[in-house]
Amino acid sequence: xxxxxxxxxxxxxxxxxxxxxxxxxxxxxxxxxxxxxxxxxxxxxxxxxxxxxxxxxxxxxxxxxxxxxxxxxxxxxxxxxxxxxxxxxxxxxxxxxxxxxxxxxxx
Length: 107
Ligand SMILES: [Zn+2]
Hints:
The longest helix is centred in the middle third of the chain and has 19 residues, at 49-67. It is built from 2 helices and 4 strands. The N and C termini lie far apart (29 Å). Helix 1 packs across helix 2 (77-94). The chain has one domain (6-94): Arc Repressor Mutant, subunit A, CATH 1.10.10. It has helices spanning 49-67, 77-94; strands at residues 6-9, 12-19, 32-35, 40-44. The chain is of the alpha+beta class. The radius of gyration is 14 Å and the shape is globular. It has a 4-stranded mixed sheet with strand order 1-2-4-3, with helices on one face.
C-alpha cells in the first residue's frame, strides 16, 4: 500500500510522515502515532505490507474519532485503542487497498 503524504478526514487535513524512531511519552517504541495538536500521523518507516496498512488505518481511526467528536463522549483511552486496533486489523484481514484520489482540478 502506498501511503499518501496527507489525507482528508472529514475536511481536516492530516499530514502523514514516516520515521524510523517513534516513541511514546515513556520512551516505548511505537509503530505509529496520531498527534491531534499538529494533526499528523507518524508511521514507522520500516513497516511493510499488511503491518503498514493496519498501522495506517489504526492511526486514521484515531484521527476520525478526534474529528467526529467521539472523544467528547468521554471515550476512555483504552476503549479508543481497542476500537482503533480491532477495526484496523479487520480491514487489513479482509481488504486490499488502493488510495483513491480525486482527479478533478481544484482552483
Ligand atoms: Zn492507538
